[in-house]
Amino acid sequence: MSEERNFGELLEEFEGTSVTIHNNAIVEGTVIGVKDSEIILNIGYKADGILTKNEYSSNPDVDLTKEVKIDDKLTVKVMKVNDGEGQVLLTYKRLQQDKMNKIFEAAMENKEVLKGTVSTALKGGLSVDYGEGKVFIPASLVSDVYEKDLTKYAGQEIEFVLTEVNPRKRRIIGDRRQLIVAQKKEQQEALFARIEPGMMIDGTVKNLTDFGAFIDLGGADGLLHISEMSWGRVEDPKKLFKVGDPVSVMIKDISGTKIALTMKLESNNPWVHAAEKYQKGTVVTGKVARMTDFGAFVELEEGIDALLHVSQIAIEHVEKPSDVFTVGQEITAKIVDFNEEAKKISLSIKALELENQNNADGDDAYEDEDLPDDADYVAGDAE
Predict the structure, then answer these.
(1) How far apart are CA 337 and CA 330, in angstroms?
(2) Where are the beta strands (DSSP E) in 47-140?
(3) pLDDT digits (tens, 9 = 90+) for 313-337
(4) Which residues contact 282 (CB under 8 A, 6 or more apart)?
(5) Assign residue 302 a region: left if phi > 0, alpha if psi is -120 to 50, beta otherwise?
(6) How distant, in Å, are the alpha carbons of 186, 298, 353, 368, 376 from that of 372?
(7) What does the alpha-carbon distance between residue 347 and residue 380 come to, in Å, rounded to a whole number?
(8) What is the pTM of this model?
């Protein structure tokens, strides 16, 4: 009988000190047991609280035995006072989510820039861990340009702002794009404030096309047209550059937000000393660069082409240059005309042949003939 009285007294004493709880109540518990699948908490109630692995964390790989230990204190939320087996079902994860929702709401209201780590990168967007919460950034809001593959962001720490916080629908939406747009606008304004035509500037090849290269100048892109890449003839920009190459260019013109660039500088202009090197009567050697029906253009050096008219190829009649030459072939000819202002040089092999013939016969040297009208060209006009 004394044992029964002692048990009754103990039960009465326990029930007298037991707290009253209800669903959604916030309570503090002490860890009294840890298993792989659950944590057991003493919450001061007549029944222990059970915190399952799924309600502790959203991470399925979490190891509860490493997360908590006996006598640790945890603040949790009551999901069910009686789970059907006389136990109190708790959640730690949802309580943290509630706290994060308040943090997210304040961050969105204050337009705060947040920084989190990308945990998952899918075709539709990025899942970003921020504190105990998760933010989803749709693919369209990841960047200011279309990105087909988002997997490169996995594990990266990125900045974003929030555009939607809806706890009921579990929608926490982030936006990285507007930060990039704002940053680029700021960089663009700073760039245009300091640049002017004639200024040299360093950049990086961003994109290549058939007509030129777009150069990233750090705030805006400039166009380096194919005709401005060299004093010589450029057939394909991709043979000169590749994406990512560092380049030094000169700003040729600024029109609104459009920047025209050039690599044709006075310091590398081959025509600066051309009058000294290519005087009339000089015998020169060059390579056939291209041909038309009326003549062949011969590259004397990069940026200087001369015209060898079809009538000046040989003493005998030549129908067209391609009957005699191939592109890349090296030839020797005499300069019969030099026009520095128009940047024109005319060549003649015929003149050399006649000189050699006259010298052999003891006659006077060959006198330059008037070239046909077709020889009145602008270097580089013919394709």
Answers:
(1) 20
(2) 49-52, 73-80, 88-91, 114-122, 125-130, 133-138
(3) 999 999 999 999 999 999 999 999 9
(4) 334, 335
(5) beta
(6) 58, 18, 19, 12, 8
(7) 15
(8) 0.61
Q: Give the model confidence (pLDDT) of 227-265 as tens digits.
A: 999 988 888 999 999 999 999 999 999 999 999 999 999
pLDDT tens, 213-223?
Answer: 999 999 999 99
Instruction: Give the three-state DSSP class for 250.
Output: strand
Contacts of 30 (CB under 8 A, 6+ apart): 41, 42, 71, 72, 73
Instruction: Tell me if 277 sits within 8 A of 352, measured CB to CB.
Output: no
- At residue 16, the pLDDT reads 45
Residue 32 tokens, joined: 């009294």
* ∠ Cα 44 47 51 (to 5°): 90
Place of tokens 């037991």: 18
How long is the chain? Answer: 383
Evaluate whether 338 touches 345 at the Cβ level (below 8 Å): yes
> 130-144, 301-315, 351-365: lowest mean pLDDT where?
351-365
Q: Which two tokens stand for residue 331?
A: 């030839």
